[in-house]
Amino acid sequence: MNHRTRTTMRAGALLVAAAVCGAVAIAVPAQAAVATDTSALRAAVTVEGVTQHLAEFQAIADANNDNRAAGTSGHDASVDYVEGLLDAAGYITTRQEFSYERTDFGDSTLEQIGPNPAVYVLGVDYFPMDFSGEGDTTASVTAVDVNLVGDRASTSGCEAADFAGFPAGDIALIQRGSCDFSVKADNAAAVGATGVIVFNQGNDVPGDDRFGLFGGTLGEPVRDIPVVSAPFALGEEWATTPGLQMRLNLEAEVVQVTTENLLADTPTGRTDRTVVVGGHLDGVAEGPGINDNGSGTAAILETALAMADLEIDPENRVRFAFWSGEEDGLIGSSFYVSQLTPAEIKGTALNLNFDMVGSLNSVNFVYDGDGDALGTAGPNGSAVIEDVFVDFFDSQDEPSAPTDFDGRSDYFGFIEAGIPAGGLFTGAEGIKTEEQAEIFGGTAGEPYDPCYHAACDTFDNINDETLDLMADAIAHSTLTFAETTSAVNGTAKGNGKGVQFDPAFKGHQALR
After folding, report:
1. Which residues pair with 127 in a beta bridge?
2. Residue 465 is a catalytic residue
3. Which of 113, 230, 429, 457 is the most buried (most CB within 10 A)?
4. Contact 274, 323 (CB under 8 A)
5. How many angstroms from the chain centroid is the CA of residue 237?
6. Which three-class secondary structure state does DSSP give residue 282?
7. What is the Cα–Cα distance from 492 to 212, expressed in whole angstroms?
8. Could you tell me if 451 and 291 are in contact, meaning their C-beta atoms sit under 8 angstroms apart?
9. Measured CA distances, 237 to 202, 212, 242, 244 (Å)
């Protein structure tokens, strides 16, 4: 262990890190500058215990059509398993039921009719955007204010003026860039477009693929015309093809999904400083969802069970939350926050979010709470959370790296409500850089998780060494904030106010 003492000024509060032999240095508000010894809890939270839960999630998926998606028997069985253990451990559990509409796409076609007939492949060459409408149109294609040169800076489709002279009945070919996809699609529909293709921008953005096929969302409501995404190379080809005619056909069905969040409260602790420790229990329909996000929820579950076994009586109530509907757009966690009263928002000290913490080609990502690395800060107090994680990794002689609050996980609703947030992430479909490989090991040029949202996200898709470290960090941060005697954001009750939050994603789907 690296024994050290560090003081840092963050968000107007003096943070003290105290080195304790046998314990990990922690960072807490100065009013509670007494180190919390988390060593007993970390020792009790073992990777063997976490992987036992992952094995159960895998068995549940095996018995339920190979997935644990929201609204399915696989998710229901996962909730039953987690709830049974937490009930037996003495937690106060609650199921929070909610329903939402999801658009499922059936048969689809994208083909070039002329001048060069070609049939394109779903999931390779194009993909329906969430909240696209259905429809079958064969028409000429008109490019809208695209830029294929230089840095390819683009505001394509963002202004009504971009569509001056647009032939009603055509398919609009629009380049990604600047504004939300919803704005581009709605502007096209307003001038009579019968379909929309949004192709990737073709520029370099750190941490985001701006060349390949991407998933996007228009946000509610469902549109009246079909809208799909496409890679930059195809968009560039189509935009430079004179006389282009294409057929775009989407069949869609709106289905009602009923599912539930599972909440488990410690029987004791201040309810006006509730620490919400959460991760999503649902997976995608394509696979068992063991790293995404069995890993986060299994580590949270093992932390809760170990706290009960050690008979820890926390200063602040800890609410362990197992969200549903995350993969359909952060539905469950957003619903939870929407049901909080103003007093309950003020009484929520912070949210710790753990989504994917066992990636095979991992990086130890910590959410950039103060925004000093990546530019988007969380609400007041989020810097304190970031410091606790960074100090923990430092104490273990392990590197860490910042990751952005970009809207891709369940902290979204908490940040919008002004609740401090933070957490850990070991990487999804992003590509590991040479620099990251030198620091964290693994393979440069390969995804952090090669089985992200795929059938191979099984029990074998877990880096046990990474999961062991992350489970310790989860246990450490949970107990640190459970025992702090002052509010994380430096006030008695929290501010309960929204913050400037301009996410690029809503869940795994891009917004713009």
Report:
1. 229
2. no
3. 457
4. no
5. 33
6. coil
7. 48
8. yes
9. 12, 14, 10, 10
Answer whether the bond into residue 221 is a cis peptide, omega within 30°.
yes
Nearest to 280 by CA among 465, 449, 75: 75
- Written as tens digits, the pLDDT of the chain (512 aa) is 232 222 222 233 323 333 333 333 334 444 333 579 999 999 999 999 999 999 999 999 999 999 999 999 999 999 999 999 999 999 999 999 999 988 888 889 999 999 999 999 999 999 999 999 999 999 999 999 999 999 999 999 999 999 999 999 999 999 999 999 999 999 999 999 999 999 999 998 876 789 999 999 998 888 999 999 999 999 999 999 999 999 999 998 889 999 999 999 999 999 999 999 999 999 999 999 999 999 999 999 999 999 999 999 999 999 999 999 999 999 999 999 999 999 999 999 999 999 999 999 999 999 999 888 887 889 999 999 999 999 999 999 999 999 999 999 999 999 999 999 999 999 999 889 999 999 999 999 999 999 999 999 999 999 999 999 999 999 999 999 999 987 776 433 334 444 568 888 888 888 89
Which tokens go with 510?
């891009």
- In eight-state DSSP terms, residue 162 is G
Distance between CA atoms of residues 98 and 320, nearest Å: 18
User: Sheet harboring 6-10: ordered strands across?
Assistant: 6-10, 13-18, 26-29
* Amino acid type, 228: V
> For residues 441 and 426, what is the distance between their CA atoms, to the nearest angstrom?
13
Alpha carbons within 13 angstroms on the beta-carbon side of residue 241 total 19
Q: What DSSP string runs through 123-175?
A: TTTBEEPBT---EEEEEEEEEES---STT----TTSSGGGGTT--TTSEEEEE
Does residue 2 have a cis peptide bond before it, meaning omega lies within 30 degrees of 0?
A: no
The structure's pTM equals 0.87
CA gap 4, 391 in Å, rounded: 10
Q: Is it true that the peptide bond before 314 is cis, omega within 30 degrees of 0? A: no
- Extract the tokens encoding 402: 């910042």
Cα 424 to Cα 385: distance, rounded to the nearest angstrom: 11
Length reported for the chain: 512
d(CA 73, CA 79): 10
* Contact (CB, 8 A) for 218 and 229: no
Tokens of 390: 């960074």
Cα 217-501-221 angle, rounded to 5 deg: 30
Which residues of 43-146 form beta strands (DSSP E)? Answer: 92-114, 118-119, 127-128, 135-144
Pairing of strands 316-323, 270-280: parallel
- Contact in structure between 177 and 201 (CB atoms under 8 Å): yes
The DSSP string of 288-322 is --IIIIIIHHHHHHHHHHHHHHTT---SEEEEEEE
**Quick one: which of 406, 404, 419, 339 has its CA closest to 373?**
404
Q: Which of 302, 326, 386, 483 is catalytic?
A: 326
Strand pairing report for 245-265 and 6-10: unpaired
